[in-house]
Predict the structure of beta-N-acetylhexosaminidase.
Amino acid sequence: MPAGTAFGRGAATLAANLWPLALLPSAWHYQHPLLFSLRHGESALLLGLPLLGLLCWRRLPGIARVLLLGVGLLLGWQALDYHRQRDAVLAAGPAMREVGRHFVVGYTDVEEVRELAAKGLIGGIYVGRRNVRGRSLAEVRAEIANLQAVRARVGLPPLIVAADQEGGWVNHLSPLLERLPPLAGVVDQPDPGIAAQAYGERQGGALAGLGVTLNFGPVVDLRPADRPAGDMFSDIPARAIGSDPEGVAEVAAGYLDGLAASGVRGTLKHFPGLGRVDRDTHLHPARLSETPAELAADWLPFRTLAGHAGSALMLGHVTLDALDPQRAASHSPAVIRLLRSDWGYDGVLVTDDLNMGAVYNLGIGKVASEALGAGVDLVLVSYDPRQVYRAIFAAAQLLERGEIAPETLAASARRLTGLSSSPI
């Protein structure tokens, strides 16, 4: 027999035995947020291929049968575990509600988010592209107003309604709302602060008209010279106001004042800064090796404006090696002590989306719990909203075990009460 033929038959035999291994990574990471856009196809593939294998069971080699059975059991366990946690959250026990009010969640199904809002299992919603695409301003405004009415009927505080409308290419509510140019364009105006305030009033008026109360902007990361090769989505050079710390602070202050004049709060992002980061936190962990002293200029806009009327502060998924080499800023007690104790910041801290690759693979429940335990006020779960059940479930478990201090959540609840009031 020719060697090539023997090799081909050997390869075919090996493939016939081991093909179920190709399903294992997807089964292990079932419902991973980075595959959210493929969720329906993912489910059909992962459930359809094992079913096809069962139909051909007698023809399968023994090893393939064992592997296929293992994949099926793993899929079943993942699905059952998810529904167990979801059902426990929706039962709305005291611990679930206590931690749930610290979550801001995106949504694809308004009925689902209405139930979460009515049961006090979330503190806010995130309104993005998928919620406004193909819809009128009146439709979206009525949907948000209806959710707020649900809260009022059950005696709960109004929902925080968050959006990501920076200007430039991050205009997630456009074209429903006016698409404004980048905020950086005001830097060359004769009085950048006044121009930024006018920009903020214009954008804030549109957001307020929709029902938005918290905007995730301005970006006060300093602009790097170039976009890192590994950056697929963040693109801070295009989104940053500028590279001069004092100029960035001036423009950001004017912008925040403009938003506040319209009844909308802004968010300084993304502390500790993405300007020096060479990896995209949407996909990968990122680190900063510089000390706080070496980052003083980068932090000047954050520190100058921390506590500025009408603003929150977003923690990015970047690890500060000098303070906490084990955790990203978004769930680091050391970073939050820096802000709360050293800087005296008593405003609202919100995480970047916990669906992002920099932290999700650590376990969304683990990261959410650590963030709340460290003193973060709002946990954002926006891209894949159904991950919020895992996050709330885990945090509630730790609260019941005493691993999240009730007094920490109480202090956070006080700050959130302030967020619900007018920023003016």
